Amino acid sequence: MHKKTRNERRDFIKKSGAAVAAFTILPSNVVSGFGYTAPSDKLNIAGIGVGGMGRRNLRNMNTQNIVALADVDWTYAKRCFDDYPNAKLYKDYRKMLDEMDKDIDAIMISTPDHTHYVTAADSMRAGKHVYVQKPLTHSVYESRKLREIAKETGVATQMGNQGNSSDDMRKVCEWIWNGEIGEVTKVDAWTNRPIWPQGLERPAETPSLPPTLDWDLFIGPAEWRPYHPSYTPWNWRAWWDFGTGALGDMACHIMDPVYKALELGFPYAFEASSSQVNTESAPISEKVTYYFGKRKKKGKIKMPAVEFTWYDGGLTPERPEGVKPGTYLGDNGGGAIFYGTKGTLICGTYAMNPYIIGREDNPPPVTNELRRIPDAMNGGHEMDWVRACKENKESRVECSSNFEYAGPLNETVVAGNLAVRLQGLRRRLEWDAENMKITNISDTDEIRVVTSDSFTVVDGDPRFDTKYATLNAKQAAENYIKKTYREGWSY
């Protein structure tokens, strides 16, 4: 938790006269006791981070009571505030948890990546069910820790990778498990992201801070830096301190059917190449390859070792043999290609519109062994979480992307950024997933990473001025895996 305990903060708020009157809505955790809500009851839901995707998530939950909204930028969040005029408004989610503890059952979180962990951990420790946008967390350690807290508290959890609940996801899994393409040893996946600027250097100018933005709360556990509009409200995904780049943004969607269908677990190694990497932001384009070992048999197929390769920033895999000319691989946003011993399966973003090459007009049947979720892509994913929140934790049917599943998936996704940021070592990185450690970096290994890269033209010729930082590779890797939080914030 943070420096002050929740009780200490609550006492402070009460003494300062900031405590608010109780809501007139009788909260369901009072009606039924923690861990159970009668099916006819409505949840009292709060939102943290509601200016962008969070607003859409809340709309998909608005059959429930939206009782509180917290956002550090009240201008960006105003549209959502207007949607729920009776909701109590906050900038600091911690104050919301203190003041409205008994009036909140569940919390939707859609903040920048670097604050997913702290908001979700505090919410779960306060006994609240949580829905957290993808990527689940900013780092490997945070994913592991959040999974542990979910297990300890027993709350209902869901990551916001809505394709995980889709019928197409189930079709991909059931086709593969039924042996329709044989044993899969290789998968390629790609995205059209980033659709925002990456490969950026830290801006030098310090413009005025917008009066409705609490910059200190935006920074949260990250290292302090001056405000600049290139960080928020939209382009935070590009910056290593706040986001996880195109890989973190989209792999939780596009790698998801691969991870679920092949039951990949953790990789034992990974490597990457990319456009220029710098100390500040993710590269413009990259290729990351993960190596997974043999797994247990599933359905009618064996699960041999798999090589999974990720492409982004305009890079794409080669077109497989048999794909009809003019046919998109996947869709405009990306997709995945499963290479099996009997055939090749292709799907789009969110596992959408899967087909097997040569069987486009004669797809195999599904086995219906996976639970179907109605209207998954248009609110069903969120409402399945609402359903789980209302069930007794002892007999609950867990959400499709609950943290027991989403935690390892997210660990794998963000571990790919280790390969990108450490590619200067020029080797495949051996990964001890159990201990969250790269095992083939010595105490003396170093990497040189670009800090700035500029040039001027003199008499028609470019004169480059590239500057580098030399980092101890082992220390850098440890910090990428488990970040050092700013004073006042802790795990």
UniProtKB/TrEMBL annotation:
InterPro entries: Gfo/Idh/MocA-like_OxRdtase_N (IPR000683), Gfo/Idh/MocA_oxidrdct_glycsds (IPR050463), Gfo/Idh/MocA_OxRdtase_bact_C (IPR043906), NAD(P)-bd_dom_sf (IPR036291), TAT_signal (IPR006311), TAT_signal_bac_arc (IPR019546). Residues 204-291 form the Gfo/Idh/MocA-like oxidoreductase bacterial type C-terminal domain. It holds the Pfam family GFO_IDH_MocA. Residues 44-160 form the Gfo/Idh/MocA-like oxidoreductase N-terminal domain. Signal peptide: none annotated. It comes from the Bacteria. GO terms for molecular function: nucleotide binding. NCBIfam families: TAT_signal_seq. PANTHER family: BCDNA.GH03377 (PTHR43818), NADH-DEPENDENT DEHYDROGENASE-RELATED (PTHR43818:SF10). This is Gfo/Idh/MocA family oxidoreductase. It comes from Lentiprolixibacter aurantiacus.
